[in-house]
Amino acid sequence: MTIHAGSETLDIVIRMLAGLWGEGRAPISVQFAPLSxxxxxxxxxxxxxxxPVRHRDTDSFGFSFQSPARxxxxxxxxxxxxxxxxxxxxxxxxxxxxxxxxxxxxxxxxLGSPSGGxxxxxxxxxxxxxxxxxxxxxxxxxxxxxxxxxxxAPTARDxxxxxxxxxxxxxxxxxxxxxxxTHLSGRYEDDEILAEAARIFPSVRIAAxxxxxxx
Length: 215
What we know:
The chain is about 25% helix and about 25% strand. It is of the alpha/beta class. Strands 3-4-5-8-9-10-11 form a 7-stranded mixed beta sheet, with helices on one face. The model has no long low-confidence stretch (mean pLDDT about 95).
């Protein structure tokens, strides 16, 4: 197992594991990968980036999962321009020009508009949304904490958390399509949190264990 986290958090995890089993003696092989802002993984079909969030002086991160938009080949244009099946079509799909009998064909001539890219952003504990818009803007789904109601905003500040209204305003301001709220305080009924957020951002739900949400 590989654990990705900020260096300070990894130090805590390493000490915890050593306390359970002894240093380096966990029952499975464990690797530690320190995070810094930027790309974590590029798997081709999707990439994961991370970015720092502020939560009570911890080295906490939010994560952006993004799949690239694709430009599909237009069969009628390929046929009209005489591009045969095979490697040339692959070159055009990859964004490279090809030459047929002295004619140069650009990818723009045979590719449709970009479509299909999706963006999911997950932010756990955070005391503010300041500086996070560039990571969240235009996301298809935002998962973020909403620990308190707005009437308890001073308490939220003291504990380093957001209110449901703040989370909803943040989603509305950044052209988010769907909002999922997590980390709710047990002092409230879920319906109270949901109602406060929905008044500002209607496309909202509260996360539950084993949820499946279409992006």
